[in-house]
Design goal:
Strand 1 and strand 2 (26-29) form a beta hairpin. The protein is elongated. By secondary structure, the protein is α/β, with parallel strands linked by helices. It starts with 16 loop residues before the first strand and ends with a helix. The protein has 34 helices and ten strands. Helix 17 (397-417) packs parallel to helix 19 (444-457) and helix 25 packs parallel to helix 27. The strands form three sheets. A five-stranded parallel β-sheet has the order 4-5-6-3-7, sandwiched between helices. It has a three-stranded antiparallel β-sheet with strand order 8-10-9, with helices on one face.
């Protein structure tokens, strides 16, 4: 058997063998046990026929490349190399050009996949271009330089020609003079090798052939499998296959040739499973060679690299296949890191050579992405998703555990010790390991580090995938009821809430509170944490009394365990201040705010600075609410909860004024900028509060400027449809309407109300506020 599994045989006497090798290429062999007296020369049956599978569908895309190649034909000269990933259509482009040129010039096709086939094919070209049988025989027997004969005849050809050297994946054979340029014709080579002395020696023009663009990829699939398939499903399948031409062709072939049952595109997508190569291969025809089977097309390149002394190439691909399909920073593959991780099959001094081999064979790409420290670009490698899936499926079972451990160790090292830009690029690979049951246990600490880092930065949408994957990993392992797993569930509920899905966070946090309550004796503070975050959900939904009960419960637990001056205990107090104001208990809110202000200088604990800053904001907001009660002319009077008579008396007893309210709001903003930074979402809340205070103090210009800054920050960090962004837009619209800028106010208010109504429903507090803004803008 040959390296690709096809049969080898020899005929004796005057026997003839027609053999399928790699592509669907019929090659005629003559092996003689006695001297040939027939006068026939050995070699291919024809060089005037393209020895490739016919195109199953019209060639899509590649317009610029095809135009360039047609122009090269008209120029009559030059060597052009089509290079790229296996199965991306290099031979298809060559076949197209061959067919296009047949009417205007001599078109010659030589299989260059092996040295023997290249030699026999080129001698057949010499014969086609006028070499005598004696000249060819002399070249065959070594009495004449074979390559010189071929190119002499090509240079003397009376007709212009196109010479295709197909599948020249090992260009070493071409370096012996077989590849040259000629003014009489154009040479087109297809090869997986992007770098080789053979190309530079003749000044070849290099043309990369890559996967198809999205629209063309989906169109190819549709053309190959016409029917009542939904366009959306066809696009999803094309995307799932990475728009890889061979994969699309195989999928289309399968869908169009079924006899016993008829699958829809959706069913095919569902059945791709963990080993898509096996299903895709079922779309190949019976006589297809290795290059037309996804399971083998890339293995041919790896086999060739191994024969060149680079078996490490396979080990590197197996490592890449453990991670996600996103770009991999080359720093992750540094020899020192790889050796420390114990990647199987790799010696330190051979890693560089193995990676260069993969690059030269077009199995991986090297490029730079932005995002490094100081704006520098980071060098990365990437490989096609289907290639990685195929490689992963072929890893021996006994090697998997060691490989997974090494892949996890490399990612842990990058996340726990790398700079921020490297960590960001490594995160997709960390997530892939976290979602794999075989590797999740190795990367839990790194995943928590990433989740918490994004949480502190106010980037909750980025934190969410890691928070969710950590909970899912615990569930897979049957460990969802443990202390650490419940803490992860609370973190997930918090992240969902901060991401803007208030309704989605509530059931997660309720379940976490039940689990934490069951562990109350062992871990009481866990129960308090769940109460605090569930209270936030209730408060945002207007269920303030329930929120206060949860906060009081959490406060009792934390005070008992940590003391009254611990920051975590103070947090339960500051959250009650807000809820009391929102219930209309403004006097109670003011008393709690004063208690909190006296407590702030004495706070201790890991979060003391953060809680102190947040306390300043709720204190300032409580003062604003109280002063609005004292100012019947305030435009916000109608939007707050009506106070009871005793609450009004409590407020009237306070020495308040808009000057003091604004002073406290500015103090809060200054503290937020110092602690969180000027553009943090938490700082945006302080900006919104200052805007309200400045408006009532008569400084409408500052109010509107701070609201616009608030919206910009929230849009950038949270998104345009986050409830906090929506409510800020509604507030700005209300202010603009009061200033008489009704056109912008109306546009903002209509959008804010529509978004709030759609996302939160008509009765949510934010929807009610946006409705008031819409009414103000239209009056």
């Amino acid at each position: 058997m040959s390296e690709d599994g096809s049969a080898r045989a020899a005929a004796y006497g005057q026997g003839r063998i027609f053999q399928s090798e790699r592509d669907i290429q019929v090659t005629e062999h003559h092996h003689h046990g006695a001297p040939d007296t027939s006068g026939r020369a050995t070699g291919p049956a024809s060089v005037r026929v393209a020895l490739s599978a016919p195109l199953r569908a019209a060639l899509l895309d590649r317009e610029e490349l095809r135009e360039e190649l047609l122009a090269a034909l008209d120029a009559d000269g030059g060597v052009h190399v089509l290079h790229g990933f296996g199965g991306c259509g290099k031979t298809a482009v060559a076949r197209w050009l061959f067919d296009q040129s047949a009417s205007s010039r001599v078109a010659l096709w030589v299989d260059a996949s092996t040295e023997s086939q290249l030699r026999s094919g080129m001698l057949a070209v010499a014969a086609d271009r006028g070499a005598s049988s004696e000249e060819v025989r002399a070249a065959q027997e070594g009495r004449r330089a074979a390559a010189d004969l071929v190119w002499q005849r090509l240079d003397m050809s009376p007709e212009p020609w196109l010479l295709v050297l197909d599948n020249a994946d090992d260009p070493r054979a071409l370096r012996d003079g077989w590849l040259r340029g000629s003014p009489r014709g154009t040479v087109l080579v297809s090869s997986r090798q992007s770098v080789d002395p053979a190309w530079t020696g003749v000044g070849a023009r290099m043309h990369r052939v890559d996967v198809l663009p999205a629209v063309e990829g989906a169109q190819l699939l549709h053309d190959l499998a016409p029917g009542d398939h939904q366009p959306e499903a066809t696009m999803r399948l094309a995307q799932r296959l990475g728009f890889h031409p061979l994969a699309l062709t195989l999928a289309g072939g399968f869908l169009s040739q079924q006899l016993l049952e008829s699958w829809t595109v959706e069913q095919y997508l569902e059945r791709l499973g963990e080993d898509p190569a096996a299903l895709l291969d079922r779309g190949a025809s019976l006589e297809s060679g290795a290059r037309e089977r996804l399971s083998r097309t890339w293995q041919l390149s790896l086999d060739a690299l191994a024969q060149r002394g680079l078996p490490e190439a396979t080990a590197i691909l197996q490592l890449l296949a453990c991670w996600g399909h996103a770009p991999v920073p080359v720093a992750l593959l540094a020899p020192s890191a790889m050796l420390a991780a114990g990647v199987p099959g790799l010696a330190g001094e051979r890693i560089e050579a193995g990676l260069r081999g993969l690059l030269s064979a077009s199995l991986v790409d090297l490029f730079e992405v932005p995002g490094g420290v100081g704006g520098r670009r980071v060098r990365c490698v990437t490989a096609h998703g289907l290639l990685l899936e195929t490689i992963a499926a072929g890893v021996p079972e006994e090697q998997r555990a060691e490989l997974h451990g090494a892949a996890s160790a490399l990612v842990n090292r990058a996340v726990l010790g790398g700079d921020a830009s490297t960590v960001r690029l490594v995160e997709p690979h960390l997530l892939a390991l976290l979602e794999n049951s075989a590797t999740a246990g190795h990367v839990l600490d790194a995943a928590r580090r990433v989740r918490d880092t994004y949480d502190v930065a106010g980037q909750w949408a980025d934190s969410l995938p890691f928070a969710a994957a950590l909970v899912e990993a615990a569930s897979r392992e049957g460990a969802a009821e443990g202390i650490v797993a419940v803490a992860d569930s609370i973190a997930l509920g918090k992240t969902i809430h901060m991401s803007g899905d208030f309704a989605g966070a509530e059931p997660v946090l309720k379940k976490a509170l039940d689990a934490a309550t069951a562990l109350a004796e062992e871990a009481p503070l866990l129960q308090a944490d769940a109460c605090v975050h569930l209270s936030l959900c209730y408060g945002k939904g207007g269920r303030n009394a329930e929120a206060i009960r949860l906060l009081q419960r959490a406060g009792e637990i934390r005070q008992s365990a940590l003391g009254s001056t611990h920051a975590d205990t103070a947090e339960t107090l500051l959250l009650q201040v807000d809820n009391q104001s929102l219930m209309g208990n403004y006097g109670v809110s003011l008393r709690l705010a004063q208690q909190l202000r006296e407590l702030v200088p004495n706070l201790h604990g890991e979060r003391s600075d953060e809680v102190a800053v947040r306390a300043l904001l709720v204190i300032a907001f409580a003062l604003w609410h109280a002063q609005v009660i004292r100012a019947p002319e305030s435009p916000w009077r109608a939007s707050i909860t009506a106070p009871a008579a005793d609450a009004i008396a409590d407020v009237e007893a306070q020495e308040l004024g808009w000057g003091l309210v604004r002073e406290r709001a500015q103090e809060s903003l200054d503290a937020h900028i110092v602690h969180f930074g000027p553009d943090h979402p938490q700082t945006a809340a302080a900006r919104r509060n200052l805007a309200l205070a400045a408006w009532e103090h008569g400084d409408q210009k500052t109010a509107i400027a701070e609201l616009r800054r608030t919206i910009a920050i929230r849009t950038a960090h949270l998104g345009a449809e986050h409830p906090w962004t929506i409510v800020a837009n509604g507030l700005l619209a209300h202010c603009l309407a009061l200033r008489g800028n009704t056109e912008e106010a109306s546009t903002l208010a209509d959008r804010a109300y529509a978004d709030a109504f759609r996302i939160l429903g008509p009765n949510h507090v934010i929807s009610v506020q946006c409705a008031a803004a819409k009414e103000a803008a239209s009056s």
